[in-house]
């Protein structure tokens, strides 16, 4: 084996396996892909080993694996087990995003956190790029790496590398589920964390492991009935897409909360053992006939229909009064059941120094602070920029989309939009684009045409962009006397978000309306991984933001 990546294809049969020992792969760690590609359903299994022949013989005895037809073995003189394990995990993530093959892989028994090792970036970049070129040449993959990196399916893959904090949370959730699945009382586990702390990634990874364990006879979770609920159509599409690539994730296990509750009530599904609730801040906290929900609040009804409920929640992402959860309501639910809480604190989405995150947090608390110095390093590279003209910001976002992909314009809900199938537009000076279009088969941000649209909190919540351009609409102004943001709730056009409820006093109702607008700003500002561009429709705020530029 030379100093370059080498690969060879063998038939996956007894004769082909025998030939493996004749090559250079005998005593080195290798990465392999077992596959069957010339069929209606293309299937693959990805692995790594230091004993290629022995491992293939083991696979050949496996009835599921035996249906596969070929083996691609990849080796390199510089391979070590840390590197091959890392490459194996990366391959699984990229194969899930690519979608050409349905994988037979189950959750690894070892934790899916790859520790740092010597020349890790070399293996992640140069070697992996070379390997991907081999896979494209053999027609085992469709898309290039950069395209796949920008896909929501890739970012939410159950095989994503977890941080120490995230891994601790995953292990705690599994342990809690194991401990309480056979209890006679309900148990609720709250996972709290700001936008970008990786809540959904942990949930995706943990749910996949749980569903794998549900197929194992010696597991506590064997034949358990588990669901992941998402009250967000765009996010639900992503989870369902992931399920197409993995053996034990099924679309039927990803439901909207009302559908889950009503299915159990009608007897079409049994009461659940374990339920994960992603984006629980979107759950209804009151009756809502429009959504066919006739109970007091969705969270209580979900808990009543499951043994263990894992709830992912961020109070700063509540966007509608009918989904308003104050601290008192959450505290009451925690007191009504056995419960525990875990808080994720590390920001993963935004590749910026803490000072930039602090500036954003201050802004959504109506404070406009001086712009901190941006120290771009190898670990963080972020651009915070203000525009006096919306069209100019749009041109800048278009340029970023050409350079790095997945860059979009989004706006607060300060512009008219009706669900009548017609197009509605945001107009700011010479800027004019359709906005809040829905109904795409793919998620909004990934559709190529949406570079020429404006997204809303409902099309982008929960997702990443490389660069985000945020239009702050007329409801967000600037008070020159106090030097703070001024919110005019009467100018906000999301009428559904402000629908009155009887259990809120008038003064509290007005306070919550302002809180919802500030939450929407928080959601939009924290979408960009590498950059946040901002334009304010209000003249006073526009002037003040552009004065911050040194």
Automatic annotation (TrEMBL):
Residues 27-106 form the GIY-YIG domain. SUPFAM superfamilies: P-loop containing nucleoside triphosphate hydrolases. Pfam families: GIY-YIG, SLFN-g3_helicase. InterPro entries: GIY-YIG_endonuc, P-loop_NTPase, SLFN_3-like_DNA/RNA_helicase. This is GIY-YIG domain-containing protein. It comes from Carnobacterium alterfunditum.
